[in-house]
Amino acid sequence: MLRGFATINYWADDLDAAKRWYAELLGVEPYFERAGPDGRPAYAEFRIGDHQDELGLIDHRWAPSGAAAEPGGAVMYWHVDDVAATVEKLLSMGAREYQPITRRGDQGFVTAAVVDPFGNVLGVMYNPHYLKTLKPPGRAARQGARRDLGPPDASADVGLMRALHAALRRDLSRLQEAVAQLDNSAAAPPTVLAGWDAFRTQLDNHHAAEDDDLWPVLRGKLSDPGDLASVDAMVAEHRHIPPALAGVDAALRGGGELTAAVERLSTVVLDHLAHEEREVLPLIEQHLTQAQWRTFLHKERDRRALRERPEFLAWILDGAGEQDAAAVLTEMPLPARLVHRLVLKRRYDAQHRWQIPGRTAEPAPRWSRRRR
Question: How far apart are CA 303 and CA 69, in angstroms?
Fold first, then answer.
């Protein structure tokens, strides 16, 4: 019957202030936002934690009649690794104590709760049982058997799309770091051009696949004018990206001012990715089945020649965090994973993409799910 936590909603008289407060607390921006019929912001959703659980903020004017005016009722506890430190941070941000830090028995359970500045009870807890539900870390997740992808009529799992977006953000960040070290008028070294060429190829392939094979299918499932407009906006935004790519390409080869071109490209791509994640990925999850989603993934894969597919695998996994890596590798059979670990990764790393010759490379970052 009850199969698991799905969404928790908190109410706020000032939705914008609540959005800022929770973004600071959680370290991420809202994943999805929706306006009400009057055009005013009505809902903002964060996806957080090990299972990307949903925390939704709703403008209080949409609260059900008879809703309590004071904090109270059931308390939903979020697992945290350090209850005392979390409570200290919450209180420093303007929350007030609702339940003090309390040890529950002798098995390690600890709870506390605060009232956020908007009147919602926010529970935090150290829960050993929760930790046992998590997947095995890193190596087991990567090297174990492929996970059950669920029945064909299950909702689409867009984890691979998120991993691809993370890889695009990673390369934009590396491009900006490289530009800061380059002569604005000279051609970039081959290592930087190799990173740039891979980024441009993957971005072009991905957007062409979306325009040809994903958006038409998704549009066929939608009826709400606002949802249809969101999908149409993706196509329109895609058209702005090739000129920005061309400007950077010319500048990297000594044909123009580089810093301004990179800034233009970064703005248009990052804004587009954030827009897509905020408005369109939820539509894919709501309206496409896993079978329909995998059909799109296979079509996108088939756009690449067989010899290009190992390059894509090494590229998307470069510096990927555990969650993104797992989303990619669950689509791969065990032999492909072994080839990546033993051959492709080493070959890819040996190219030293994005590095400036003569400079000591910084350790590769572990890219998180944080979104602009």
Answer: 56
Q: What are phi and psi of 63, to 5 degrees?
A: -65, 145
Quote the radius of gyration of the chain (alpha carbons, Å): 23
339, two tokens:
């080839």
CA distance 302 to 294: 12
Any idea what the Cα angle at residue 306 is, between residues 304 and 309, rounded to 5°? 65
pLDDT of residue 95: 96
Burial class (CB in 10 A: 0-12, 13-18, 19+), 333: exposed
Domain coordinates in residue numbering, the chain: 7-133, 143-349
Nearest Cα to Cα of residue 244 among 280, 207, 275, 214: 207
d(CA 185, CA 187): 7
For residue range 92-135, list pLDDT tens digits in order.
999 999 999 999 887 788 999 999 999 999 999 998 888 777 65
Pick one of 3.10.180.10, 3.30.870.10, 3.40.718.10, 3.40.190.10 as the CATH number of 7-133.
3.10.180.10
Taking the model in full, what pTM does it have?
0.60
